Amino acid sequence: MRLQDVYMLNVKGLARGVFQRVSGSAVTDLYSPRRLFSLTADDCFQVGKVAYDMGDYYHAIPWLEEAVSLFRGSYGEWKTEDEASLEDALDHLAFAYFQAGNVSSALSLSREFLLYSPDNKRIARNVLKYERLLAESSYQAAAEAVILRPNVPHLQTRDTYEALCQTLGSQPIHYQIPSLYCSYETSSSPYLLLQPIRKEIIHLQPFVALYHDFVSDSEAQKIRELAEPWLQRSVVASGEKQLQVEYRISKSAWLKDTVDPVLVTLDHRIAALTGLDVQPPYAEYLQVVNYGIGGHYEPHFDHATSPSSPLYRMKSGNRIATFMIYLSSVEVGGATAFIYGNFSVPVVKNAALFWWNLHRSGEGDGDTLHAGCPVLVGDKWVANKWIHEYGQEFRRPCSPNPED
Ligand SMILES: O=C(O)CCC(=O)C(=O)O
Ligand SMILES: [Fe+2]
């Protein structure tokens, strides 16, 4: 349902096994699987029922509609694995419509139910109730009531976030902006003279750069393998506590440098590229993150925004910068979206994204609000190296200008 909302997928397509974005009359194929795996009537019923049980009729109705339509089409062909039937789907859909204020649909579905099970007293009572309600004129108008998407306060940032996720990271006019260019990074360290890294400047305020082929396929695989046994549901800092939250769905693990020499090599490379000190306690251990289908991280800051944040326990200040490596590709979705920057970066396997979280004054940079878009198809892996303020005094000198 999250994927449906963020990528504007239509239920009919999903049930046939295709991923289509439907916006007005425009239909875009987001992904064409090599083989179509369609959902059964019962599958659609089960999805609809999850929403129905939460009182979320906005999502329940299209899934139950699909279930009803598929059950109707295969009436009489009973499948052993089916838990539900046409009657179950009609019953739930009728009630969902009633709850959503559409009494006439509730009535016609309940009447259809009675064709199959004429002895059902509860449905017969509902039919009488719906007929009576419809006879009262006040209910006529409610039939057209629009059902609003539940559980989400309407936020401008949400609209921007979802729109940025939908572009899947493509930046159609990027090449027209001269300050956003590509170069070989060779200047900050002798190491880079021998092995230059391709840098793509993605954005200036906030400054975001993408370093292509920062790791090799085998390094990326090694890091994923090292983390795999330690993965646990990700948490976020909330006041002084660490909590599991709906807005961050992924698994993660922390890898200390002593675990494997590849992690030491990686630190040296990050230090060469950023010019920053990444030795403990000036940077955190490497955090490896794995997102499954529907996994996401809604808009957030990486730096602490409250003085009681657990981030300060390292006693090395706030998170001055983020260095995030894409350890896998993703078939569809999973872009990294910068909400106020109004751009998103696609998942580019083996590339690394760098940005400053703080101004030179030490103030958090509000423009860095960013998110990991939900994974639609595939399996996304990233690794975060968070670099702290202390230790960087001569590497990124401070400035009294709040803009710097
Ligand atoms: O997965 C992403 O693209 C972003 C991850 C992120 O922002 C984080 O882990 O703090
Ligand atoms: Fe982040």
UniProtKB/TrEMBL annotation:
GO terms for cellular component: endoplasmic reticulum lumen. It comes from the Eukaryota. Its EC number is 1.14.11.2. SUPFAM superfamilies: TPR-like. Residues 282-389 form the Fe2OG dioxygenase domain. Its cofactor is L-ascorbate; Fe(2+). The keyword Oxidoreductase applies. It is found in: Endoplasmic reticulum lumen. PROSITE patterns: FE2OG_OXY. SMART domains: P4Hc. Keywords: Dioxygenase, Endoplasmic reticulum, Glycoprotein, Iron, Metal-binding, Oxidoreductase, Signal, TPR repeat, Vitamin C. Belongs to the P4HA family. Heterotetramer of two alpha-3 chains and two beta chains (the beta chain is the multi-functional PDI). This is Prolyl 4-hydroxylase subunit alpha-3. It comes from Dipodomys ordii (Ord's kangaroo rat). The gene is P4ha3.
